[in-house]
Amino acid sequence: MIEYSGAASVIPIGCRADVERAAANDNGSDGRRKIYIVDGDLDLLARGRHEKVPNLHRLSVYAVENLVLSSESVSSYADIVCPHLTSAEASSRVGVDDVLKNVRTYGAGYFTILAVARRLKLRGNEFRIMHTDVCRSEKGRYVEIDPSKLRAFLRVAIKSIISSVGLRRYRLAKQFVRERIATKGLDAIHFVSAKHITLKILNDRVASVGGSALKQGVIVSTLANNTNVIADRALVLKLRALFR
Predict the structure, then answer these.
(1) For 166-198, how does the pLDDT look when each residue is reduced to its tens digit (9 = 90+)?
(2) CB 111 within 8 A of CB 103
(3) What is the pLDDT of residue 3?
(4) Once rounded to an integer, what is the mean pLDDT over residues 232-239?
(5) What's the confidence (pLDDT) of residue 53?
(6) Helix-helix angle 167-184:147-165, to 10 degrees
(7) Cα separation of 65 and 129, whole Å?
(8) What is the pTM of this model?
(9) What does the alpha-carbon distance between residue 71 and residue 189 come to, in Å, rounded to a whole number?
(10) How far apart are CA 78 and CA 91, in angstroms?
(11) Residue-wise DSSP of the chain
(12) Are 166 and 130 in contact, with CB atoms under 8 Å apart?
């Protein structure tokens, strides 16, 4: 939650359900302006409409880490954490463009199937989000989503879905998710979990070229300090209104 009463405060509340409950129960009687924020996560692709709750904002990206991902911010990050390289060398050797292209090319299919399972309310290890399940490693570092490992994951996941709900319901759910991606113009960089996939790959690539591997909170702060674009425009407008 972000609260403003002369000065801004960011107040962690808990899990998604806790935040939604707090927003629903907040009648504004204390006179403080607030925005309650929850991640989009797989519901961004899997769900249709949500009940509207005043002051509750659902991110239009997977999670807060996805808000600051762009070619420019990732290039700047690579430059900062690879001080032994020039800016151009850091971007090239880390493979900034390759990382984002790989996530767009293969991550989209990965999260489409995960969202199909979410829409059908299926749970199980075959639907878990784990970079080691789908990424290729080099000398113990996970450097990209591997097409072969992804295909193997998808075969198991799709077989499990069809076995659970049947082919027709699988096709309908898949159509829903794909149409939602298309109609909302969603970029895989924003709906593939940065925390679980993109930042893991980025950090391992930085380390593989002799750069500084950092904790994710530091990575996100660095990316945020080096981006001019926040992916969720509605959030930007709400924050501006909050701080007026």
Answers:
(1) 999 999 999 999 999 999 999 999 999 999 999
(2) no
(3) 58
(4) 84
(5) 84
(6) 120
(7) 15
(8) 0.89
(9) 10
(10) 6
(11) -EEESSSEEE----SHHHHHHHHHH--STT--EEEEEE--TTHHHH-------TTEEE-SSSSGGGGG--HHHHHHHHHHH-TTS-HHHHHHHHTHHHHHHHIIIIIHHHHHHHHHHHHTT--SGGG---HHHHEEEETTEEEEE-HHHHHHHHHHHHHHHHHHH-HHHHHHHHHHHHHHHHHHT--HHHHS-IIIIIHHHHHHHHHHTT-----HHHHHHHHHHT-S--S-HHHHHHHHHHT-
(12) no
Residue 137 contacts residue 143 (beta carbons within 8 Å): yes
Whole-angstrom distance, CA of residue 107 vs CA of residue 109 = 6
Tell whether the model's pLDDT for residue 50 goes beyond 60: yes
Secondary structure element (H or E) that encloses residue 141, with its range: strand 141-145
Q: Give the confidence band of 14 by pLDDT, cuts at 50, 70, 90.
A: confident
Q: Above 60 in pLDDT, residue 160?
A: yes
The amino acid sitting at 27 is N
pLDDT for residue 1: 56
- 3-state helix vs strand vs coil in the chain, percent to 5: 60, 10, 30
Separation between Cα atoms, residue 167 and residue 182, nearest integer Å:
22
CA 48 to chain centre: 19
